[in-house]
Amino acid sequence: MSVMDYLSRKHKVMNCVFEILYDLYGEPSWLKKPKDGQDPEKIIEQWITELGGYGEVQLRQACYNLFKYKKVASFPKLAHILAELSDQQKESEQEQQKQSAGTHHYFCIEQELMKQDIENNCCHHILPDYRVAVDYILSVKLKDAIGIEEYKDLENTYKNDWPLMQGKKYRKAMELGLFNDLDKILDKVSKERSHG
User: Which of 12, 83, 127, 154 is at 20 to 30 A from 175, Cα to Cα?
Assistant: First the structure.
């Protein structure tokens, strides 16, 4: 675990879990008057390790559920929180699954669009035309439609995952109707390519 990852987990657990539980139940006895062999630092470390992978929303909900349903009368143990979260997937695992799914299921936009046109008996262009048209829509038309700032943010957010970035751009372009005149763009591209 990197230092940054550890710090963000610590922030989540301390600022979310401990703050809520402290408000609801008061100071835990292991912090106030630790018994022999109880090391508050080690206990906090364990909480961070076990809970840090969950999202803030999940952690808050688990804390409130413990209190709401009166599952514990005093400051809960780590096991109580983990039991509340037992049916949920850690955020970090969800991310790993998304990333591994992304690497296996690469969606080639231009191939899919061409395939749709072939199925609809209206394909009059070759794949390189589709490639240029898609690139034009996603890099020129989309930038004009959403503005340079939002476009840069989108690129920076997904700069380490090109297929995901293209997918996000494609979804945004579809929402904005930028593919509605794909036929005209393809015709234009085709003419320019044949005269180029």
Answer: 127
Start-to-end C-alpha separation, the chain:
53
- Tell me the pLDDT band of 147, cut-offs 50, 70 and 90: very high
Q: Do 124 and 189 meet the contact criterion of CB atoms below 8 Å apart?
A: no
> Are residues 81 and 120 located together in one domain of the fold?
no
Inter-axis angle of helices 78-85 and 40-51, to 10 degrees? 0
Model confidence band, residue 138 (pLDDT cutoffs 50, 70, 90): very high
Shared-domain flag, residues 140 and 157: yes
Confidence of residue 94 (pLDDT cuts 50, 70, 90): low
**Rounded distance between C-alpha atoms, residue 21 and residue 176, angstroms:** 45
pLDDT (0 to 100) of residue 104: 42
Residue 20: give the domain boundaries. 3-97
Residue with tokens 């046109």: 117
Q: Which two tokens stand for residue 70?
A: 């009166």
Distance CA 9, CA 40 (A): 17
